Amino acid sequence: MHTRPVLIVVLGPTGVGKTDIALWLAKRLEAEIISADSRQLFKELKIGTSMPSQEQLMAVKHHFIGSHSIFDNYSAGQYEIDAIKILTKIFENQKVALLVGGSMLYIDAVCKGIDNIPNVDEKTRKYWNEIYREKGLEYIQNCLKELDPKHFNEQVDIKNPKRIIHALEICTITGRPFSEIRTGEIAQRNFDIIKIGINLPRQILYNNINVRVDKMIADGLVEEAQTFYPYKELNTLNTVGYKELFEYFEGKISLELAIEHIKRDTRHYAKKQLSWFRRDEQITWFLPDKKNNIVDFLQKKVIFNCSSHSVK
């Protein structure tokens, strides 16, 4: 039997069914859910982030769902601090908690820790965002290549302006390459971690994504995005489901093409998530309809002994 608390991590690509699996487990283990979704964090973005329904939120206690505003500056580093505080409190009375989501940096923040990266001041943040808006992606790519060739060539997703801008911000305020500050040391936690990956065959996953986007549109995603169009320069809105519709509002593409781009970009993101997660040998993978296999796995890990109720 475990003598230390256990954090069960339910992860996987977008559209795979993590929420249903997590709710099913949480109810049986009487566990609380810590969301590791960097977009569901924002209370304004309900439709475009597939935020859990009110019924789901009432069934199990959740953390980090609609807890912040798109106008807040929030980072994976701050999430680590906040999430560990909540887990510490949960583990005072419970032996099991669930971390659920697909945001790679947020999951790593809790499981491995984030390097002690300094906070970025508003002046520096504004400077690099303005440079990006005025001169484009290729220009800031070249800036990072000059300031931190190691990070540019080996670490950062060079097609992701948010990641490039963040690295440039750190280079600016520290006067050092971002890659020197990122030590990669794994933090020591006072709880055990068990990672469960949920995945589907590619075509089924992609079909799920397409269907989900269509449902978002039917539920009012266009109207939701229109509401936030005046704030489109915010980093929190430079995300799939919104940035494509902003192009439609600006007359650059048709609504039909914007919807296709949302589907395409979501599929690309799912592929990126899987590439990231597959590097982690600690993840045990399951199909979403194989709940009995998950039960067997957890019983072998004696997780059910950590709760007053069996997972069955």
List keywords for this structure.
312 residues; globular; single chain; six-stranded parallel sheet; alpha/beta; 50% helix
Topology diagram in text:
Layout: E1 6-11, H1 18-29, E2 33-35, H2 54-59, E3 62-63, H3 76-90, E4 96-101, H4 104-111, H5 122-135, H6 137-147, H7 149-155, H8 161-174, H9 178-181, E5 192-198, H10 202-219, H11 221-228, H12 243-249, H13 255-277, E6 283-286, H14 291-300
Parallel strand pairs: 1-4, 1-5, 2-3, 2-4, 5-6
Helix pairs in contact: 3-4, 5-6, 5-8, 6-7, 6-8, 10-13, 12-13
Summarize the structure.
The chain has 312 residues and is an alpha/beta fold.
Q: Given the helix and strand composition, which structural class is it?
A: alpha/beta
Helical segment count: 14
Strand arrangement in the largest pleated sheet: 3-2-4-1-5-6
Spatial separation of the terminal alpha carbons: 17 Å
Number of beta-strand segments: 6
Determine the fraction of residues in helical runs and give it as a percent range.
40-55%
**Low-confidence sequence ranges:** none
Major β-sheet annotation? 6 strands, parallel
Beta-sheet strand percentage? 5-15%
